[in-house]
Amino acid sequence: MSLHLEATVADRDVDVSLDIADGEVVAILGPNGAGKSTVLAAIAGVLRPDAGRGVLGDDVLFDIGAGTWQPAYARGTALLAQDPLLFPHLDAVDNVAFGPRSAGRTRAQSRATAMTWLAEVDAAELARRKPSDLSGGQAQRIAVARALAAEPRLLLLDEPMAALDITVVPAMRQVLKRVLAGRSAIIVTHDVLDALLLADRVVVMEGGRIVEEGPTKEVLERPRSTFGAGIAGLNLMRGRSVGTAVCTASGSLVSGLSDESLPEDTDAVAVFSPSAVGVYVEPPAGSPRNVFASTIRELEPRGAQVRVRTDELSADVTLPVVAELDLVPGKQVFLVVKASEVTIYPA
Question: Architecture of 3-221 per CATH?
Answer without folding.
Answer: 3-Layer(aba) Sandwich (3.40)
